[in-house]
Design brief:
With 439 residues, this protein is of the alpha/beta class. The protein has 15 helices and 14 strands. Strands 2-1-3-4-5-12-11 form a seven-stranded mixed sheet, with helices on both faces. The protein has a seven-stranded mixed sheet with strand order 7-6-8-9-10-13-14. It is elongated and about 115 Å long.
């Protein structure tokens, strides 16, 4: 094998240059060759007597020539691989959601889509560029018609669908084309169990309830729980308080039960432990019963100023913040939630102004804010793809990003895809501060 060095390569080039005039002459000769011409016959003999030494030198460099060709091919393949790595090029984003103004689903998803666009715009300052393709995948749309678009298979990341019935076909498509699929809202997505390309953001209520019970018992292990029966026949919170009582019994944690409407003041007071911190749990999420509870707690606190009382509520109580903020502060209210919309934060205010400027209207008054949800989802995944490429798995601590509203933390589901496990307690503190306790 020839040892490659600069001198041998220069010698190789010189020998090639020596042969070049001969090869040109040879081409011209055969192009006008006439076998009956004596002059041509003489020249042919002369050609056959070409310098054997020069030809021999050329032939000795044929292995080196093949080596250079192989190196060139390998380098070219590496360059192609580098240029196709999502970390080194524009990220292609697909949005397959009902993007229309026909009903509430369409309007909410349009706002979510606009949040994605705002995130793409914000990421430019980090050097992350995107191409966004959007399809109106309505409830009655045929998924195969959307997937027939050639741009669909070019996507690195797709957000959608909204409806569970559309998940199976889209799941097959992303697995075939190695595309990451972010399902932001659909609850029923069994494909996540077997498809490693799927990221399911939304958490089913049953899973959240079980998680909340466990987190409650861990966080309030040194408190005395007081469960208040509010006598609300329409309540859907009975399943939670029942599961909570079962968990408390299993852990050997003592608790009290009292009645909001039927218990006397004395009986109500005895449900609380004067020597421990108390945490109140209602078996309803309704506003009237919450108001009545604050009334009874106020009377109890007036008579027992040293009694420590906190309250554990429900996610929908976030809708009551505007009217109950002072009570939330006074009674140390904790609210379990997979999101938190702090309308007074500078980041939220900035995005609301940007939304109004770009789309000439305000965000919908909903919890969560769909534009902020889209912003967080896009910022999280696009930054992850840019940093980790196709290996990005959405695990906690992958990079430094503080969500505006919706935290994300994915865990692997068996050998399949990933589910979001981000969860927090929103704590309204007596010091008129709000903290989020993340899990």
């Amino acid at each position: 094998m020839h040892k490659f060095n600069r001198d041998s390569f220069s010698l190789f080039l010189r020998n090639c240059l020596r042969l070049l005039p001969f090869l040109v002459y040879l081409f011209q000769f055969f192009a006008s060759f006439d076998a009956n011409n004596e002059k041509n016959a003489y020249i042919c003999i002369k050609i056959l007597n070409i310098s054997f030494i020069t030809m021999k030198r050329f032939l000795t460099y044929i292995p080196l020539l093949f080596l250079l060709l192989a190196i060139g091919q390998k380098a070219n393949a590496q360059m192609l691989k580098f240029s196709d790595d999502v970390r080194n090029r524009t990220i292609r984003v697909g949005v397959m959601l009902p993007l229309h103004d026909v009903n509430g689903d369409g309007r909410r998803m349009v706002e979510y889509y606009r949040g994605i666009l705002m995130a793409c715009d914000s990421l430019k300052r980090l050097g992350i560029s995107t191409d966004v393709y959007a399809w109106n995948l309505a409830e009655d749309s045929l998924v195969q018609h959307v997937l027939a678009d050639s741009n669909a298979a070019r996507c690195d990341l797709i957000y959608g669908p909204l409806y569970s019935k559309q998940v199976p076909e889209l799941a097959k498509f992303v697995k075939k084309n190695d595309i990451k699929l972010v399902i932001p809202f659909s609850i029923d997505a069994p494909d996540v169990q077997v498809n490693e390309n799927i990221f399911q953001v939304y958490q089913a209520p049953s899973e959240l309830m079980a998680l909340t019970v466990r987190r409650f018992c861990g966080w309030f292990k040194d408190y005395h729980p007081v469960i208040i029966d509010c006598g609300d026949s329409t309540s859907t919170k009975g399943a939670f308080t029942s599961a909570l009582r079962t968990e408390l019994d299993q852990r050997g944690i003592a608790y009290s039960i009292t009645n909001l409407k039927q218990s006397s003041d004395e009986s109500f007071r005895k449900a609380f432990d004067p020597n421990k911190k108390n945490v109140v749990v209602l078996n309803t999420g309704r506003s009237p019963e919450l108001n009545a509870t604050f009334g009874r707690l106020s009377a109890l606190s007036t008579e027992n100023p040293d009694m420590h009382i906190a309250m554990f509520g429900y996610t929908e109580w976030l809708m009551y913040v505007q009217h109950q903020l002072e009570n939330f502060y006074q009674y140390n209210v904790y609210l379990p939630a997979p999101f938190y919309t702090n309308l007074f934060s500078s980041a939220t205010e900035r995005l609301q102004l940007k939304y109004r400027w770009n789309f000439h209207q305000d965000m919908m008054h909903s919890l969560p804010r769909f534009a902020l949800t889209g912003f967080d989802h896009a910022y999280f995944f696009l930054q992850g793809l840019h940093q980790y490429g196709s290996d990005f798995d959405g695990a906690a601590g992958s990079f430094d990003y503080t969500p505006v509203q919706t935290p994300l933390k994915f865990e692997r589901v068996g050998k399949g895809g990933y589910r979001n496990r981000a969860y927090m307690f929103i704590h309204y503190m007596p010091e008129h501060k709000v903290e989020s306790v993340n899990y």
